[in-house]
Design a protein that fits this description.
The complex is a heterodimer of chains A (about 325) and B (about 250). With about 325 residues, chain A is α/β, with parallel strands linked by helices. Helices cover about 30% and strands about 30% of the residues of chain A. In chain A, the strands form three sheets. In chain A, strands 9-8-7-10-6-1-4-5-11 form a nine-stranded mixed β-sheet, with helices on both faces. Chain A has a five-stranded parallel β-sheet with strand order 15-14-16-17-18. Chain B has about 250 residues and is of the alpha/beta class. Chain B has six helices and 13 strands. Chain B has a nine-stranded mixed β-sheet, with helices on both faces. Chain B has a two-stranded antiparallel sheet with strand order 2-3. Classes of the chains: A alpha/beta (about 325), B alpha/beta (about 250).
């Protein structure tokens, strides 16, 4: 009996969210009184496995096979299916990464189990784990109960504080799954980045960021004037860049840039988690939104519930006056 | 090429959400509904593929009577026909149960491609496409930005994290979950709306499933951080905010 946490590595480097997942796994393992096991997957992951053994886990399993050199959903699913079936596993915990989103639902389906994805909290309730998930981009929370075992869970970025290495040395085991090249259907090519970014928002001290609330491209001048008055960089949430209203390089969030300015103005941005992960490091967050339940107010230091088309021009005037 | 597009109907984006009396889902009585936005992009991709390659686009949608409006919208935009799986209330159905219902409804269809949005805007599991692929024995790719069908395969551009992308080649049939925003969405034309009325909508009952997960409680999140809400008319709040910028953040 154990709780298994699947750590994520890419070309020999950890995805840091792995250690947040490890913390979530520990929460479940401690509540159930069972040991915590970590798994690392790849072609040759001995040194990573050894490093993982320095964390407070009972055991680390290096899941190794040359067909796991590059990630494929078929390869990873089959390898983990075999691993999970070797012992009695109460729960399998993942970081909620793009890669996990690609294969963990498939893995859970092999066990006819639900995959409770993107959880923000785990609470023991009547001897069972109650998983807290966000609905409607964070406007509501839901307590979800998964039936049967093993339970498959992924945890949202930033929801758990990463477990720290203790310098202990847990046992490292190697697991070599049976994989057949003909059963791996997708053929991945080399990952690539598109054109180099010419705008580096990560160094900006002030950022005025705009979201769907701006409604139309022709309204952008409203926020541009604020950025100009403040001497701030202009940025945006994903839908604005998808629409081509601002270039992709000005996008903040999980698929864009990560920023940490002194002040981040979120204007007409509801605050979906994909955006929040890109700006959580800001020293001060100011949110202007007409919906008082918008999740952005959760992250904001100062909030203004109101019409941005009235508030922002007033703010431009006040900033100009203060600077004069 | 035969393409199935799986779409979901969800509460409209700016809806005021109220929890229902049993505390396990929303009170739907005052809600308006719309097509899940990521699914609208999957539909657009399917229509553009058909325009290039010919074939058929079939809309698949599970839900109560109200979803016929979303089905009509998809037909008006150009889908050829639709399958409506009658589910009394799709509220909290987990992704496995939903995919089981959809997989059963596709028996006898033999599509080349199944497209769906990368996630729903209500439950946000982001799994239905992947689970459906597994149940049907199809290959899959998620968070797809571009679709290029080759002979018996399809080459897709996937989005990875942090500005990275990757091309992947998959054998057909395959399930692709489509990233939002990759193409411009079309509007239904008057002609399209008129034509939609004559298009086939096959209504079938949902297969019975056992939920693999259940929602015990839905509630408003507690604010963990005390954000200070500035109040007053726009001029007053602007003045208060400038004070904070000047004396607290020291950026003015």
């Amino acid at each position: 009996m154990s709780v298994l946490v699947v750590l994520e590595q890419n070309a020999g480097k950890w995805n840091r969210m792995s250690f947040e997942a490890l913390a979530a796994g520990k929460t479940i393992a401690d509540a159930l009184g069972v040991p915590l096991t970590a798994a690392v997957i790849g072609a040759a992951v001995d040194s990573l496995a050894k490093e993982a053994a320095g964390y407070p886990v009972a055991k680390v399993i290096a899941v190794q096979h040359e067909l796991l050199t590059h990630y494929t959903p078929d390869g990873y699913t089959s390898a983990l299916e075999q691993l999970v079936k070797t012992g009695k596993t109460e729960a399998v915990v993942f970081p909620h990464t793009y890669q996990v989103r690609d294969y963990a639902p498939k893995l859970a389906t092999r066990f006819a189990q639900a995959f409770v994805s993107d959880v923000v909290d785990i609470k023991p309730e009547n001897g069972k784990a109650s998983f807290i998930r966000q609905l409607f981009q964070g406007k509501l929370n839901a307590a979800v109960e998964a039936k049967g075992e093993p339970q498959f869970v992924s945890v949202q970025a930033g929801a758990f504080r990463s477990l720290e290495a203790t310098g202990a040395a847990a046992t490292v085991e190697t697991f070599v799954p049976q994989l057949d090249a003909s059963k791996i259907r997708s053929k991945p090519e080399e990952p690539f980045r598109e054109a180099q970014r010419s705008v580096d928002l990560s160094a900006a001290e002030l950022i005025v960021s705009v979201g769907r609330g701006i409604k139309e491209k022709d309204n952008l001048h409203v926020v541009e004037e604020l950025a100009e008055a403040l001497g701030a960089e202009l940025a945006a949430s994903r839908p604005i860049c998808d629409n081509g209203w601002l270039p992709m390089e000005r996008q903040v969030g999980s698929s864009g840039q990560t920023v940490s300015p002194k002040v981040y103005f979120a204007i007409g941005i509801s605050g979906a988690i994909q955006h929040l992960v890109g700006m959580k490091g800001s020293k001060m967050v100011v949110a202007i939104n007409k919906d008082e339940n918008a999740p952005i107010f959760e992250t904001a230091d100062y909030g203004i519930v109101g019409d941005l088309f009235e508030v922002v021009p007033a703010l431009v005037e006040a900033v100009k006056k203060a600077k004069a | 090429m035969k393409i199935i597009v799986s779409v979901k109907q969800v509460p409209a984006r700016d809806s005021a959400l109220k929890v229902n009396s049993d505390g396990k889902w929303l009170d739907e009585s005052d809600l308006t509904f719309e097509m899940n936005e990521p699914d609208a992009y999957a539909l657009e991709e399917a229509l553009q593929l058909r325009e290039k390659l010919g074939g058929e686009v079939v809309v698949l949608c599970a839900g109560p009577e109200r979803v016929t409006q979303t089905i009509r919208e998809a037909l008006a935009k150009g889908a050829d026909r639709a399958i409506h799986v009658e589910v009394s209330a799709d509220g909290g159905l987990d992704a496995l149960a939903t995919a089981q219902i959809l997989a059963k409804a596709l028996e006898g269809e033999a599509p080349d491609l199944i497209l769906t949005g990368l996630q729903s805007e209500d439950l946000g599991y982001g799994q239905t496409g992947v689970v459906l692929a597994e149940l049907l024995g199809f290959a899959h790719a998620t968070i797809v930005m571009e679709v290029e069908p080759l002979d018996a395969t399809v080459r897709v551009k996937r989005e990875l994290e942090d500005g990275w992308f990757q091309n992947v080649v998959l054998p057909l049939p395959a399930v692709l979950t489509i990233q939002s925003g990759i193409k411009k969405l079309r509007y239904a034309t008057l002609m399209g709306i008129k034509k939609a009325k004559t298009k086939e909508v096959r209504t079938i009952p949902a297969a019975s499933t056992t939920p693999a997960a259940q929602i015990d409680k839905v509630y408003l999140p507690q604010r963990s951080k005390q954000s200070q809400i500035l109040t007053g008319d726009p001029k007053e709040v602007a003045k208060q905010l400038v004070e904070k910028l000047k004396f607290e953040a020291r950026v003015i």
